[in-house]
Amino acid sequence: MPDSADILLGPLQRSHALIADDIVGHLERLIVTGTLAPGTVLPPERALASGLGVSRNALREALTRLDGLGLVERRQGSANRVSRTIPLTAALAASLDGVPAEFEHSAEFRAEIEPRIARLAALRADEQQLEALRDLLDQSARETDPDQSANLDIGFHTAIAHATANPLLATLGELTASWTVEARVYSHLEGEGRRLSHAGHTRILAALTAHDAEAADYAMRIHLAEIRDVIDRVRSADSGLRDASGPPFAAR
User: Less Cβ crowding at N or C end of the chain, within 10 Å?
Assistant: First the structure.
């Protein structure tokens, strides 16, 4: 069973939000990025509160909210643990709310890095790697669940990075997925976003199959620009819903 003993969980960096809000955002980020893997046993509440530098009451409130988001499992008489299945869409409830710069950084990072990765992958991808990408594309065409669609999206982009045959770029591709997962999930919350994502992947795969580096670079840039527009639109709509009716995604 995964253990959090070797993971530095604190101290907590404070903002102007309530302490419980900061705890939720901090632990949520560790969970979504994989620092706290699914099934990881959390330290006892007394030790965790001490490590974060917060009160046990604030910690308990945060853990209860994380349980409600499906990110933490709390059971009477047993240790708290990270959920074995992480609902990515639920993880968006608070983590980057009110921090639009984080989304800008994510979009800029991807726009600078991923077209270059696609360019090199077009020159080096072998038939087995292309077939794996086709399989991911076929699965995404049938997928309607936002979580699974986002996972297939991550898998597609990570597979392109591995197709460069450069282990450093492959690692960077995996890091890109973990650093930008919260932003990219926004593009899979609605059917139109999933449709655009699939169409973009189709164009990228066509360029990779043709081993056309210029076309792969261009297709990736267009894809990322379209997805950025989707993210901006969904975030804007979500902000309006919260203003009118409460927490994000409450009715979705």
Answer: N
